[in-house]
């Protein structure tokens, strides 16, 4: 509902910023971390020693590529490999390369909201693994997932790597998995990376690096609001604050205002006041265990086919079917 004080929004980003910053407590969605600067910062995060997730998943894929290839279809079943939010495809390329070298029949269909990211990915695959048939699909996961259902014939395998589902609260994750379930047929597979509960210090360090890369990443949402909505956030007046609850497995990121601040957001015609030490919640990064994953899968009507893990069970790739 719109009253005379709410401006007309020109994007969901604007609408969600308005709603999040006029709510109590304040919040902003981590999906808005990612513009060109944010993408670059996330690349830097993946390269940090503290951010263990990327290396663990890379090694799990590398170690198990033969078994994964067999599971996806081997030399008998032709399949389409879809990927949600492929990024630079560094991890996926391990599989793509192995599939090509072993004459496995498949095509690769990365899905991303950013056409620019897809173009870069396609170009790099054409250069590094030219034998891969690539078809990029631009759009949001959910809309595109629905479109996936229109692709008939071949078996569908959906990749969702990097513990990206961890940005969702459990009820949202169940909705997400239900959407996945609705976009696959019997015999199709969903291959998903989910970071596991572990030493809480290890988790905390991954989201609180001393070099300040994660801090810059978290604050990039304010930088975007400054740039795109004519706001005047002073990034230095916020602390990057990370907490991890080892009971629930939820890591939460905040921006904490170090002093009283009056902020103007021009295109929203909005003025907000932050008290000293007031928080803006920006992200959750959920850590899982088998019980949580089994519960989520069950609620979404999915079955766990198998799982792959590192030797210390710090990260897992689960395979689901309908
Ligand atoms: C891309 C959502 C998996 O939550 O671990 C990295 C994003 N945030 N450092 C994560 C992120 C802070 C990342 N995901």
Automatic annotation (TrEMBL):
GO terms for biological process: methylation. Keywords: Methyltransferase, Transferase. GO terms for molecular function: methyltransferase activity. Pfam families: Methyltransf_33. It comes from the Bacteria. Signal peptide: none annotated. Residues 13-321 form the Histidine-specific methyltransferase SAM-dependent domain. InterPro entries: EgtD_Methyltrsf_superfamily (IPR051128), MeTrfase_dom (IPR019257), MeTrfase_EgtD-like (IPR017804), SAM-dependent_MTases_sf (IPR029063). PANTHER family: ERGOTHIONEINE BIOSYNTHESIS PROTEIN 1. This is Dimethylhistidine N-methyltransferase. It comes from Flagellimonas pacifica.
């Amino acid at each position: 509902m719109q009253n005379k004080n709410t401006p007309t929004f020109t994007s969901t980003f604007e609408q969600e910023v308005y709603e999040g910053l006029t709510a109590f407590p304040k919040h902003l969605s981590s999906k808005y971390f990612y513009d060109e600067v944010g993408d670059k910062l996330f690349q830097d995060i993946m390269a940090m020693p503290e951010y263990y997730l990327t290396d663990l998943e890379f090694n799990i894929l590398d170690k198990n590529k033969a078994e994964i290839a067999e599971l996806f279809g081997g030399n008998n079943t032709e399949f389409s490999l879809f990927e949600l939010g492929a990024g630079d495809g560094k991890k996926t390329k391990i599989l793509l390369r192995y599939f090509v070298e072993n004459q496995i029949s498949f095509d690769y269909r990365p899905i991303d909201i950013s056409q620019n990211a897809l173009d870069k990915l396609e170009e790099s695959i054409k250069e590094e693994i030219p034998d891969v048939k690539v078809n990029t699909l631009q759009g949001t996961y959910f809309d595109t997932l629905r479109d996936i259902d229109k692709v008939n014939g071949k078996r569908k395998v959906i990749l969702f790597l990097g513990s990206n589902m961890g940005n969702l609260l459990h009820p949202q994750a169940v909705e997400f998995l239900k959407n996945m379930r609705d976009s696959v047929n019997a015999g199709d597979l969903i291959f998903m990376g989910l970071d596991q509960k572990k030493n809480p210090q290890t988790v905390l360090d991954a989201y609180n690096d001393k070099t300040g890369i994660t801090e810059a990443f978290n604050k990039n949402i304010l930088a975007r609001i400054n740039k795109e909505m004519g706001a005047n956030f002073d990034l230095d007046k916020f602390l990057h604050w990370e907490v991890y609850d080892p009971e629930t497995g939820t890591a939460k990121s905040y921006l904490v205002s170090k002093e009283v601040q009056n902020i103007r957001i021009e295109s929203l015609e909005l003025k907000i006041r932050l008290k000293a030490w007031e928080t803006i919640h920006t992200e959750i990064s959920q850590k899982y265990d088998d019980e949580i994953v089994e519960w989520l899968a069950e609620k979404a009507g999915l079955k766990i086919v198998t799982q792959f893990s590192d030797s210390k069970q710090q990260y897992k790739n689960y395979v689901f079917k309908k």
